Fold each of these.
Amino acid sequence: MTTNGTFQGDSKGRPYHRATHPLLEVKNLNVDYLAASGTVHAVTDVNFSLRRGEILGLAGESGSGKSTLAYAITRLLRPPAMITGGEIRYYPREKGETLLSVDAISKDSPGEDLITMGAIQEDARGGDAEGEDANNPVPIEGNGRSIDLLQLSPAKLRKIRWNDLAIVFQSAMNALNPVMSIGAQITDVLRAHRPSMGADSRKQRAIELLKLVGIAPDRLRSYPHELSGGMRQRAIIAIALALSPEILIMDEPTTALDVVVQREILTEIIRLREKLNFAVIFITHDLSLLLELADNVAIMYAGRIVEQASNRDLYLHPRHPYSYGLLNSFPALRGPLRRMSGIPGSPPDLRSVPPGCAFHPRCPFAFDACHKVLPVLQPVQSEDSSQMVACHLYNPTYNAEPPTTSDLAKKYEALAEGSATR
Amino acid sequence: MKTQEITGPVMDAINRVPAPDQFYTRILQVLLSIWRAMTSSRKVAAGSAIVGVFVLVGLFGPLFMHYEPEATSNLFIAHPSAEHWLGTTVVGQDIFSQLINGTRTSVFWGLGTGVLVTLLSMVVGLVGGYFGGWVDDVLTLLTNVSLVLPALPLAIVLAAYFPRGPLTISLVIIFTNWAWQARVLRAQTLSTRSREFVTAARASGEHTWRIIFYEIFPNEIGIVVAGFVSTTIYVVLTWAALEFLGLGDGTIPSWGSILYWAQQAGALGGGLWWWFVPPGVCIALLGAGLSLINFGIDEIADPRLRKEPNPQKARKAAA
Amino acid sequence: MRHILRRILFYACAIWVAITLDFFIPRLAPGDPVAALVGKMSIKGYVTPSMQQTLAAQFGLDTHDSLLVQYFKYIGNLLHGNLGNSIQYFPTPVAQIIGQDIGWSIMLGGVAVIISFGLGCLFGIITAWRRGSILDTVLSPAMNFLSAIPYFWLALLSLFIFAYLLNWFPLTGGSYDAFNVSPGWSLDYIGSVIQYAFLPALTLVISSLAGWMLTMRNSMITTLSEDYVLMARAKGLSEGRVMFRYAARNAVLPNITGFAIAIGTIVGGQLLTEMVFSYPGIGYALFQAVGEQDYAMVQGVFLIITLAVLGANFLADMLYAFLDPRVRVERSA
């Protein structure tokens, strides 16, 4: 997460490298679905930043807008979905910036092939790492050169796709072409974006990628239906990494798999991220996953981000009542037996979102202001961390004393015991 | 999905009827939804209108004929005129009357045969799909063989040997055309059968035939209706073709037999377009009407095929 | 390859059914076929005793063999390529006549099916890809209407307009201008063949184009909403590659089955074309045989048509297995 604050590193204490600008900045993004029965605001006023090598988790229930957000960033939305406002600024690597994170250099992973890949990348972009066109200069923003992804022409967009921005779909079985072998689906990306590569080097690269994700190279000629569920998901990840993208968007990549395979895949992702240092936007409804995996987490509700925090901060002190409810919707492995309540009610119909804070009908803490005024995402005061929350409880104008985590806990427990009413 | 408010005498009548048996209410509900669908899609409405016209002509047309269709006269090969709207044949028969007379045979034998083909394919498909095992294997083999044998040549051979007449043609068409729908229904039955409500019905000891017709079948009505429409198109076309080849009874009037006599009399070489064009137009129109219904049903069943709202318009509307 | 084996067995079974039908249909027809036949044929001319004997032999009425023995004799004859003798062209063997005619049918039908399949699929792909464009809004309803026109009527109409009224094509029938040209690899002959085949082929293409296009379009529209097409776009592949290699390649699979059936109809269902245009193919032969009650011919032609259809279907099955790798895996019920 970026603030103009002090600490510039991920949750594990590793510093981000020298770049002074983020990798991706989403500003005021709005996505609507234009249905016959009315306009549905699937994503409203979303702002966030992504740093190089950061894993950002995007959590929320079904219908919160997280998948729509991901598809909007990659411009893969289909009608009747439409991006109705905002910009998505992407900062491609400057010439001379190193490709590797500080950590990776010191590990035993071979640095050479990655550097070669970088050189090839520069080649493919015509030696200019910016994707800018001499005839259409993009206005320079801040301290780095950036491109607005939403304004790109289809031809330029195609160049960015997969090169810089790759997406891992939820269901690997549906995302793989059933009549093409896995190898062919890797090499056609190489053929499209790396015209200088010959057939042999493409094949080598494909084998390299399969090995990277733990699939035997003899599977190059297998068809998707001949692989197991876990292998298919890994194949999708291999294809996604084919051009060493900067950003990997993963849309619930493990939801369709059993927990054992899920763990394998996640470990794989973490390992690959360490090695190749791409940033990840990880979308899921499973918050427990994100607590382990992500550096920062953004929680979405009814199309808006209601809380943003590092995974540590979120785990230790979730601020928004919704976040607390989500975190405590699954039982702890140890500890005393307790009654669980979950969050009462269900997510709103996006065609008729409640006025004020969308969560207020379900919130145990709702008060006057919540029915009328829309809370804005703001940093939680009195904290050094970069946690942000959109809740009137933390807005001194409406509420003098913000609740502590134990206050939240007590309220939810009371709900569970059935003795408290809102 | 919001349900629409339907009012009117039909609805009142339906509401007055008690619903003793689940089967009837379910069938009624399905039929009602079909009616709603019919009037909501332009294609289906247009197609139904066309078919409706032909049915009406078939029912009441012969009451309004000016001439006896078989009556010969001295006015041979006359061009269309005020007295003879579509001219006359080579023996002076009024073609327009013949056309109306033939409508009855073509439309009703066509629809009737279509119904019978659909029924036969339903039985085979449902039984095979539900029972599985060797019953299914045998029926599937029969179905596949029937599918792979060429229909028209077989129909010709059969019609050639058996006594001429509409009954023969009808039976021949049924014999050569039941297989396709049967296969579709079998696939659908297989997938419905594995659903939980069927397992529940079997567990509660419901009688097998009840399960097939009261539980599984109502789910497939949509496909059956669509199949019936497709089949009827094919039946009408094949019927006309067989008649045209002279395999029908030339004395029983139908659109195809008009074409047969036209061909026999060398209408083409003689340029007598008013003799062979109208029957073809009728067949084409009936076929087009049925096709429209079919495409309409397709669109209703699969929303992806519907016309998409123009995103330009949508953007302007939002602005 | 278990899949291939199963298909071979199936087609063997289908062939057996066809042969048996061919054997039994005449024998199941009511009445005394020979007497009825002789009666009808006597109108046209004297029926020689040898002809009567052939007829009786056709129906197995000359021997006292049981039905089963006759059946096996029939199959035996078939295996020797003996389809009996034609009655119209007595004593020419049926097999010989068929051999002459089948070439024309295959040429006409083959060209027509390949052209209409190719064009139809192409139009289907393009109209689905550019859905709502001008091409789509004009072409789709037009094709809808075309598909409902009864074929033989379309054929009659085109014959009337182009041959009778405009005189561009011959009216009288045949496969080439037998009076002025003789067979051979000369330009005249080939030109004449094209001239005589053009109109029948055109009507065949027009009438079947709509079917191919509409099914391809529907299949393509459904395929375009699949995730793997979305992923292909996300990969930044060129439009052409996504359209053909990812979308069309999957969308065409249902049409392949149709293609198989269509190949079958090259020999079988072209009947109407050949009848209207008097094109001397195997369908026309069947039609004439029915009209002249040359039952030996009818049975022989039917059998050949069926065998051709089954063979074509078998080839198409193999093609489908080649194109769709999922089919090769043995599926349990």
Amino acid sequence: MLHVPAEPAGPALDAGTVLDEVRRIVAEVIGDEVDAADIDLDTRFRDDLDVESIEFVALGEALQARFGERVRLAQWIADMEVDEIIDMTVGQLVDHVAGSLR
Amino acid sequence: MADVVVDGVRFNVVRMGPADMAADGGPVPVASSTPVVLIHGLIMDNLSSYYYTLAPAVARHHDVVCYDLRGHGRSDRPPTGYRLEDAVGDLWGILDALGIEGPAHLVGNSFGGTIALAAAVLTPQRVAGLALVEAHPAFEGWAEELGEELEDLVDGFDGPGMREFLAGRASRGVRRMARTCEELVDECSMLDDFRASRLTAPADLATVPCPALLVYGDLSDVLDRAFAVHEALPSSELHVVEGCSHSLLMESPGEVERLVVPWLARQSPPGPSPDRVAGVRGR
């Protein structure tokens, strides 16, 4: 279980804040095999970070726990192909999360 | 996301339902009264194979529970407790912890189907329906056949160049899969526990009262089981998908969805779910 404080309802968060959170959660989910400082918006989850499917699920669930129920990864990816999901960039995920909170 | 602890073992559990799938500001459809549990396959599998395929589609109509089996994915890997009876105990222990007491539909893929069938035999009062993809039932010889396959697989890691590959060029996913396999086969009692499990013989399947949907690929190496299970269960419908192997769920997720989702709807009276209230989803 990842212990992440839930974000109280409040002003929308900008993409930079979301990116920092994604970096922190990726490091928490994957461990020290990834240097979070190297992660930017163009980083690909599969090709660059070698993130496994089950880790990506944990990442999404942790983001939801962090930013609240407006972030709904399951609904967002429902119509995507498996490859499309795991091959996305950090930027795509950050945009989705930031957009959900707007 | 939630971790659920059953008898000291921590399970990685993901839930989703109609409220999670509704469009922002749109109406939330009333969840079916029957929750659906998705049970994944052995060793290299975990709940993510449902999360990316069937789970969201089912969650438009039902409360869905996915979990990583004991020893798999992000759940704990205790050294013992791998009999089929234990797997059935884990399943109901998780649902108890989530407050789901009424009957549930069980969706099982491959070994997940082995567990679902055992659950339907051992605890029929808790199973509303079975939707099985490439299920191989625990008939006579099941544990021995599976044990040989897995021991061969692990022996293969000692083949020429394999250790170097696993230590070097292999992706984290492959390394992790190999480690999972070795730990379950060599360090846990999994294979012994399979051999010590209560079998679900055709005569046991004949006692299962709930309806079942069976889906197999026509190129599957377990296709013979499709016909045996179909014949043994009192009420089942069988679909064979052309051009697919035992990896049917990942090869043709759309086809599996087109079969499973309407079938679940036909077996489930609509009605309010015990723990979720329908309404309009706000932002």
